[in-house]
Design a protein that fits this description.
Helices cover 47% and strands 11% of the residues. The longest helix is centred in the middle third of the chain and has 34 residues.
Length: 212
């Protein structure tokens, strides 16, 4: 049995793969798994092909009994439901098991026809797209507002433009929709290696999620 770990960040200058690696390593330890093969890519999930992202090569090497670990399903691609289904079914029909470490979701060969389970997992990926689109739209509106007010739209050199919580937006939304208390959510994030204060979480939610 070979355990593969797949990591992908869209832009190495704006995102850090260490959170994904930390989550995967912690999850693997919980299950007593040893990662034999790490795959890491700095490529956009929506602007590149599965071949360029190393997905095709990974699928060609996976065999029955193998394990594939990813932090969340969006790492495998989040722009095409067809591509996601192909990747998931390619793993499971070969007799391998896909583990989504953030949510601790497992899609095993016997789950290939469990449509609710598969589509819930895919929904997480598209939730990430939704947040990305909302961030982009809010940024455009803010830019137009500042422009109309005669203000400069540039930012100071070195200014923070991202939050460490952005990469966990789908996870946070899912927990909030489940009714998870914010204090408990902070604890879950801490278990994933993401330390945030109550004030920090609230500010992030206000910026990214509006009044949710």
């Amino acid at each position: 049995m070979t355990t593969f770990a797949y990591i992908r960040v869209s832009d190495s200058t704006k995102q850090d793969s260490s959170n994904q690696r930390f989550t995967i390593e912690g999850y693997a330890r919980e299950l007593g798994l040893t990662v034999h093969n790490w795959r890491e890519f700095n490529l956009s999930g929506s602007k590149t092909t599965a071949e360029a992202r190393g997905i095709d090569e990974l699928l060609s090497e996976v065999k029955a009994g193998d394990v594939v670990l990813v932090s969340d399903i969006a790492r495998l691609g989040r722009d095409s439901i067809h591509q996601l289904l192909h990747t998931i079914t390619s793993i499971t029909t070969k007799g391998a098991t896909l583990h989504l470490c953030y949510s601790k979701t497992t899609i095993a060969p016997e789950d290939v026809n469990d449509l609710p389970k598969v589509f819930i997992a895919i929904g997480e990926a598209f939730a990430a797209v939704r947040f990305a689109e909302e961030r982009s739209q809010k940024a455009k509106v803010a830019c137009e507002r500042r422009k109309a007010a005669g203000l400069h739209n540039g930012r100071k050199h070195g200014a923070e433009v991202r939050s460490k919580l952005d990469d966990h937006a789908a996870f946070i939304l899912r927990e909030l929709e489940k009714g998870t208390a914010k204090t408990a959510l902070i604890g879950l994030l801490k278990d994933m290696g993401v330390s945030v204060t109550r004030q920090g979480l609230y500010k992030w939610m206000e910026r990214r999620l509006g009044n949710l």
